[in-house]
From TrEMBL:
Any one Gene Ontology molecular-function term assigned to this protein's record: kinase activity
Source taxonomy: Bacteria, Pseudomonadati, Pseudomonadota, Alphaproteobacteria, Caulobacterales
SUPFAM superfamilies for this protein: FKBP-like (SSF54534)
Sequence ranges assigned to domain Transcription elongation factor GreA/GreB C-terminal in this UniProt record: 54-129
Name of the protein described by the UniProt record: Nucleoside diphosphate kinase regulator
Record has Cell cycle as a keyword: no
Keyword set, alphabetical order: Kinase, Transferase
Keyword Transferase on entry: yes
Gene (name only): rnk
Native source species: Brevundimonas olei
Length: 135
């Protein structure tokens, strides 16, 4: 299993429907790389019903702004399932290192998280955008 993270990890919260979708997604994948890291996050997450989910926590399909200590710019992305990923449109797969690291964080939280090269970066959730209205 991939475990290059150091220090205490921040508490994370997942919506029960996101947890179920992500659990199914990683269920058949090898326990290495982003899938292994995502599985570790699922194992330690507090899970709550969608109506009880705090509004300042990253969920699937929510637009967010984050920073990384290796770049001065704040990036705007949406965390999505792999089938919906489109990096040019800012839709980042939950099975990427960044996606697995940001899910469940609340605004202002940071996490020490590996990148594709194995180097550990500090990802910080700067802000969440208001969720889009759903019918």
């Amino acid at each position: 299993m991939t475990t290059p993270r150091k220090g205490a990890l921040p508490a994370i919260t997942l919506r029960s429907d996101d947890f179920d979708a992500l659990d199914r997604l990683v269920g058949d994948l090898p326990g290495t790389g982003p899938a292994g890291l995502l599985q570790q996050e699922l194992d330690r997450a507090k899970v709550c019903e969608p109506k009880a989910m705090p509004k300042n926590v990253v969920t699937l399909n929510r637009w967010l702004h984050y920073s990384d200590d290796h770049s001065p710019e704040v990036r705007r992305v949406q965390l999505v399932l792999p089938k919906d990923a489109d990096i040019d449109a800012g839709r980042v797969s939950i099975l990427s290192f960044v996606g697995a690291g940001l899910i469940g964080l609340k605004e202002g939280q940071s996490i020490a998280w590996p990148d594709t090269s194995g180097a550990v970066r500090k990802l910080t959730l700067v802000k969440l955008e208001e969720p889009e209205a759903t019918n």
